[in-house]
């Protein structure tokens, strides 16, 4: 597959675009990244995803596929020459999809609320507890499902690893902004080992955004949202 036949509309700061990049690298597939500024949104993005108007969008021979988890599954189904991202067993596939949907629901909501909350807002503490509960769940999933191996997917990165790992930089940003650990060595030893293995994997290493650079994006987004609300 020629690189110009496969294009990713994304952004370096997007955890969802990161999922698609990791999936491509796991499969060893060449692709072109088209960086979206999002302000304003490009005509290509609006044309490719007219319903949600958001990244990521994968253009495969100019045909758009939208939504990060769906794109990762698409990549897994089309490029079968490399190890599967989703489990072969139907039950295990359903299990993996459940936990990716769970982390998207629990952590993404908490992340947005923590980012926008004022310093002493009581709602902020509630969202921290939501996030901590999510990570406790993922610690359990890691301990039960990995069977002592490096990843949620076992010996190699799988669907849950991509879904959860795409948030790793944003987790670090929230920890740094609030001087508070979310993934703790005492509470989450399994996740700590997993984050080290995940970040060092050849398909991931070099793709995870720099925390300080991403921190500036988070601060800018917070200022923009505050101004828009006034």
TrEMBL record:
State the reactions this protein catalyses. Answer: RX + glutathione = an S-substituted glutathione + a halide anion + H(+)
* Coiled-coil segments on the chain, per record: 114-144
Q: Keyword Acetylation on this protein?
A: no
In the UniProt record, the signal sequence range is none
**Could you give a single Gene Ontology term from the biological process aspect?**
toxin catabolic process
Q: Where in the cell is it found?
A: Cytoplasm, Cytosol
Q: Give Gene Ontology CC terms.
A: cytosol
User: What InterPro entries would the database entry show?
Assistant: Glutathione-S-Trfase_C-like, Glutathione-S-Trfase_C_sf, Glutathione_S-Trfase, Glutathione_S-Trfase_N, GST_C_Tau, GST_UstS-like_C, Omega/Tau-like, Thioredoxin-like_sf
Keywords attached to this Swiss-Prot or TrEMBL record, sorted alphabetically, are: Coiled coil, Cytoplasm, Detoxification, Transferase
Which superkingdom does the taxonomy of this entry point to?
Eukaryota
> PANTHER family from the xrefs?
GLUTATHIONE S-TRANSFERASE, GST, SUPERFAMILY, GST DOMAIN CONTAINING, GLUTATHIONE TRANSFERASE
Write out the similarity annotation: Belongs to the GST superfamily. Tau family.
According to its UniProt entry, what is the function of this protein? Is involved in the conjugation of reduced glutathione to a wide number of exogenous and endogenous hydrophobic electrophiles.
> Under which name does UniProt file this protein?
Glutathione S-transferase
């Amino acid at each position: 597959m020629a690189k110009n036949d496969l294009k990713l509309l994304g952004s370096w700061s997007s955890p969802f675009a990161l999922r698609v990049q990791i999936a491509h690298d796991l499969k060893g597939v060449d692709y072109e990244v088209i960086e979206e500024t999002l302000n304003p949104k490009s005509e290509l993005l609006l044309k490719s995803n007219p319903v949600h108007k958001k990244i990521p969008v994968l253009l495969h021979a100019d045909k758009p596929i939208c939504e990060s988890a769906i794109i990762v599954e698409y990549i897994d189904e089309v490029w079968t020459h490399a190890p599967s991202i989703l489990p072969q067993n139907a039950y295990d596939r359903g299990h993996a999809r459940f936990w990716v949907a769970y982390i998207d629901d629990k952590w993404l909501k908490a992340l947005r609320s923590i980012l926008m909350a004022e310093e002493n807002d009581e709602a902020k503490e509630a969202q921290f507890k939501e996030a901590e509960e999510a990570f406790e769940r993922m610690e359990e999933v890691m301990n039960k499902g990995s069977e002592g191996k490096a990843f949620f997917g076992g010996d190699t990165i799988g669907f849950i690893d991509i879904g959860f790992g795409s948030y790793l930089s944003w987790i670090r940003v929230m920890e740094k902004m609030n001087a508070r650990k979310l993934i703790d060595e005492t509470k989450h030893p399994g996740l700590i080992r997993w984050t080290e293995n995940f970040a060092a994997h050849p398909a991931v290493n070099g793709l995870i955004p720099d925390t300080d650079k991403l921190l500036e994006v988070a601060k800018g987004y917070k200022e923009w949202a505050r101004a828009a609300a006034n």
